[in-house]
Write a structure and sequence with these properties.
Keywords: rRNA processing. It is built from 7 helices and 4 strands; from the N terminus they run αααααααββββ. By secondary structure, the chain is mainly alpha-helical.
């Protein structure tokens, strides 16, 4: 296949942006700051990184694209995508790249417009899961921290002055500190 012209490359970049902006996993990561203070900029940077990956590598396979996007999500957003959507995103990006290579630009523009309409119809919202969902409770248990935290940041425990506490020994060697009433 012939390399993309600059206008076709620009259209492919728009296509990648549309795919990423309608991908709920990335949008949740951005909305919740999984990538830190610059989450939005990282998402925008990903568009160029994916587009450049296609320009730098001939005959990319879908699984290679999937691995690349997975690596970006892990490195930039500390997010491991295991909901099956990564395969769909990689497939869509590969499909649109092939359409750009085949000069089927009208189809690409139509797909971009459809994705933009889908995006404007509503974005994914994060809502707390019901307590009776076993999978969610397992995830919550796996995410428990060793110490106290506020908004994910570790907090040092404050110790009460000695006169306000009493100590008692417990069988397992731990000392329980209780506040006096």
């Amino acid at each position: 296949m012939a390399p993309l012209t600059s206008s076709t490359r620009e259209l492919f970049s728009e296509a990648v942006r549309a795919v990423l902006e309608t991908w709920p996993v990335l949008q949740i990561a951005v909305d919740n700051g999984f990538g830190g203070a610059f989450s939005q900029q990282k998402a925008e940077w990903m568009v160029g990184a994916i587009q450049q990956h296609f320009m730098d590598n001939d005959d990319l396979q879908q699984d290679e694209v999937e691995d690349f996007i997975s690596e970006l999500m892990n490195n930039e957003f500390d997010t491991v995508v295991d909901d099956g959507s990564l395969t769909q995103v990689a497939q869509k990006v590969c499909e649109m790249f092939q359409q750009c290579q085949q000069d089927r630009l009208k189809e690409v523009r139509e797909q971009i417009n459809q994705m933009i309409q889908k995006k404007s119809a509503g974005r994914a919202k994060v809502t707390p899961a019901a307590d009776d969902d076993d999978d969610e409770s397992e995830d919550e248990e796996a995410m428990e921290c060793d110490g106290p935290s506020v908004n994910g940041a570790a907090v040092q425990e404050q110790h009460l002055p000695p006169q306000a506490t009493s100590r008692e020994e417990v069988d397992d060697g731990w000392t329980v500190v209780r506040k006096k009433k």
